[in-house]
Amino acid sequence: MARARVHADVNAHLGKSWYDYENFHIDWKDPDRYEIVKRMGGGKYSEVFEGIDMVNNDRCVIKVLKPVAAKKIKREIKVLRNLTGGPNIVELLDVVRDPSARYHSLVMEYVDNVEWRRLFPILTESDVKWYTYQLLVALSHVHAHGIMHRDVKPANVMIDYQKRKLRLIDWGLAEFYHTETDYHIRVGSRYYKAPELLVGYKRYDYSLDMWSVGCMFASMIFRKEHFFRGSDNDDQLLKILRTLGTERFDAYLKTHNIHFETDVDNLLVNYPKQPWSRFVTAENRHLGSVADAVDFLDKLLRYDHQERLTAKEAEAHPYFNSVRLETISTEGDSVSDSGFAST
């Protein structure tokens, strides 16, 4: 039976009022309270702006949703309402809609984020431990409350480097987990897609997010912007096979009775598993050659989703011993040993 190792029945226990977003009523507010300052970015489903709350003069983020199914909008808001206040989860402040009811916007807390491309090359070992741990704390909370994020990637992890603050954002693809349920496999971003998505396995669970954490962690310790960088989904799987080898991949397919067919010749070749030491260079040796770091990575990047560390297990890994003992508050702290300053 397809069943998550942890939190499999959380939603059943919390009840329909917790997870039923289709019947969720949203009390939309007037948008006049907020003023857009500048565009911050955008994607397939939304445009994101920096804004000002004119009542208290606080900075905020205004996510203007592009026209999509009402069910999808309800799902994102329901997830955010359920999770707001949780550790390292972006806070939903308000939901607004213009008088024509054409434009729906989410107003969220502002994070003075440093772009991943600028950040990951300068992260120290202590930085990598700190921010990875903070991400795990967020996911532990999310998963314990019956929710899969399904799009964990650097662009959805906001880091205020000066304050050592992390926020997990963008819940547009998040979904409530139920056992024996087929889920859409067109989720996530290619470089962070777990193998189950690439082979069409629909009964996945929270462990999907843990693969994505592994990809981010590999990028940080090996100083490689995207650790698996495929040109399409087939090439993405090929990049994974050439690193993790085909022996365990074949065993994974057999264990879960996954019928994977392909006409891509390279995906049918046998590849040996590469030792993680192969990715250690003079530039990243101080980050990626530590035994605990490699062990942690190896326990996340597993084909078999049932073998991956859960978020709570990952938090308890020896790699994070120093972080768990740290008592310095993240508020107002500055990590300046790299000489990097946020702008």
TrEMBL record:
PANTHER family reported in the protein's UniProt record: CASEIN KINASE II SUBUNIT ALPHA
Boundaries of every Protein kinase domain copy: 34-320
CC terms in the record's Gene Ontology section: cytosol; nucleolus; protein kinase CK2 complex
Keywords: ATP-binding, Kinase, Nucleotide-binding, Nucleus, Serine/threonine-protein kinase, Transferase
Domain of life: Eukaryota
UniProt cross-references to Pfam families, sorted A to Z: Pkinase
Catalytic activity: L-seryl-[protein] + ATP = O-phospho-L-seryl-[protein] + ADP + H(+); L-threonyl-[protein] + ATP = O-phospho-L-threonyl-[protein] + ADP + H(+)
Main localization (coarse): nucleus
Entry's localization field: Nucleus
Keyword Transferase: yes
Catalytic activity, EC: 2.7.11.1
Protein name: Casein kinase II subunit alpha
Subunit field text: Heterotetramer.
Family: Belongs to the protein kinase superfamily. Ser/Thr protein kinase family. CK2 subfamily.
Keyword set includes tRNA processing: no
Gene Ontology biological process terms in this record: regulation of cell cycle; regulation of transcription by RNA polymerase II
